[in-house]
From TrEMBL:
UniProt xrefs under PROSITE patterns: CYTOCHROME_P450 (PS00086)
Keyword Iron-sulfur: no
Name of this chain's protein: Cytochrome P450
SUPFAM superfamilies: Cytochrome P450 (SSF48264)
Assigned protein family: Belongs to the cytochrome P450 family.
Highest rank taxon of the organism: Bacteria
One Pfam family recorded for the sequence: p450
Claim: Heme is one of the keywords in the record: yes
CDD domains: CYP107-like
Alphabetized UniProt keyword annotations: Heme, Iron, Metal-binding, Monooxygenase, Oxidoreductase
Length: 418
């Protein structure tokens, strides 16, 4: 019998989707689905097939070409198609050109040089939270969000005086919503972001800085290597990818560790476990649950299934990362797991450009947070936490995470791991 969830894929329990992922994965590697908004697509859920699809030459990322051919596909690229001309929405040679122009900002030497600044931001944010004493604080609002948002803002060259407004607009734009159309507040936030980025480009032309936006503007104006749409799209994509996924990684990872106290205690006792713990958290509860859309350019054979030409394809990275055909005991969090490979950052030419930055921020965040507050507890049971996201299928993160950093007395509310 066909799983009814396949008829409304995306309209499932975001708080604990993994039992559904396991059920669908057991039914086969590839499934034809109807998305919650009524569009048809093909879903890939097993590791071997997912990895193959992420590098398949017959799958295109160019949604502009797909839309021109078939208006029934789903257009990505908030806040609209005008901002969708970034490296995640094009194929080579455009992808190669766009990625090369941004890649220097995320090189290994640049990340090493950034480490002291990230540590300083982490320390300041935790100082601010610690001032609240033993009251409940929201770890997302006070730590997991502002850390990566501050770092990516500094890399891009967004003035400090503008960050509160810009951050609030992105929070509104990406807030959970069950409405079929974007809420008025999200539309307004989207318009504000567009206006701001257009004005920011103009200001960088007048007053260049030593930042990535200035580099992109110079490439557009001097070398004619970027169109205005590509510059705006790239900046937007880097802001979203540069903060939102890391926010979710820190939030999801903190919950995972608090629900597995013996593993958290081991990490506190030996901070050298943090890098491996991050890889296991990325595998076990990936912030990016599904890849961004692909589109078949001809009939494509994956996992014994022929996906017809000009069909939309989504890859469940989260389902693939718990595939028992690839991992031993995949449903169990094990921060000492020897095999640290996963698909949480994708694979192939679209592998996450900011993976080094995300790992750097997460390493410093987890080491400092859990080392400084070894008795931190969740202030609510796990069953009261809510995972959802306004962007639809792709991202999954906490809207808030109430914790007490240094509780007086015994353990606080918690549940068994889901």
């Amino acid at each position: 019998m066909r799983n009814p969830a396949l008829e409304t894929w995306g309209d499932y329990d975001r708080d604990d989707p993994y039992p559904l992922f396991a059920l669908v994965r057991a039914g086969g590697p590839v499934h034809e689905v109807t998305l919650a908004d009524g569009h048809r697509a093909w879903l890939i859920v097993r590791h071997e097939e997912a990895k193959a699809a992420l590098t398949h030459a017959g799958l295109s990322k160019d949604m502009h070409a797909a839309l021109a051919r078939d208006g029934a596909v789903v257009a990505e690229g908030l806040p609209g198609p005008a901002f969708a001309r970034h490296m995640l929405g094009v194929d080579p040679p455009d992808h190669t050109r766009l990625r090369r122009l941004a890649s220097a900002a995320f090189s290994r030497p640049r990340m090493a040089a950034l480490r002291p600044r990230v540590q300083g931001i982490v320390d300041r944010l935790l100082d601010d939270l610690e001032a609240h004493g033993d009251v409940v604080v929201d770890l997302v609002k006070g730590f997991a969000f502002p850390l990566p948002f501050t770092v990516i803002s500094e890399l891009l060259g967004i003035p400090e005086s503008d960050r509160d407004h810009l951050g609030s607009w992105f929070t509104t734009l990406l807030a959970p919503s069950s409405a079929p159309e974007p809420p008025a507040a999200a539309v307004s936030a989207s318009e504000s972001i567009v206006r701001y980025l257009v004005e920011l480009l103009a200001s960088k032309r007048d007053t260049p800085g030593e930042d990535l936006i200035t580099d992109l503007v110079n490439s557009a104006d001097r070398d004619d290597a970027l169109s205005e749409q590509e510059v705006l799209s790239t900046i937007f994509q880097l802001i979203v990818a540069g903060h939102d996924t890391t926010t979710s990684l820190i939030g999801n990872g903190t919950v995972a560790l608090l629900l597995h106290p013996e593993q958290r205690d081991a990490l506190v006792a030996d901070p050298g476990l943090v890098p491996r713990a991050i890889e296991e958290i990325l595998r076990w509860d990936a912030p990016v649950q599904h890849s961004t859309f692909r589109y078949t350019q001809q009939d494509v054979a994956i996992g014994g299934t022929i996906i017809p030409a000009f069909a939309q394809v989504i890859i469940s990275l989260a389902a693939a990362n718990r595939d028992p055909g690839r991992y031993a005991d995949p449903e169990t969090l094990n921060i000492s797991r020897a095999d640290t490979s996963h698909l949480a950052f994708g694979h192939g030419i679209h592998h996450c450009l900011g993976a080094r930055l995300a790992r750097l921020e997460a390493e410093i965040a987890f080491t400092t947070l859990h080392g400084r507050f070894p008795t931190m507890r969740m202030a609510v049971p796990r069953s009261q936490l809510r995972w959802s996201h306004g962007d639809g299928l792709v991202l999954r993160g906490l809207h808030e995470l109430p914790v007490i950093l240094a509780p007086q007395g015994g353990p606080l509310a918690s549940d068994h791991p889901a």
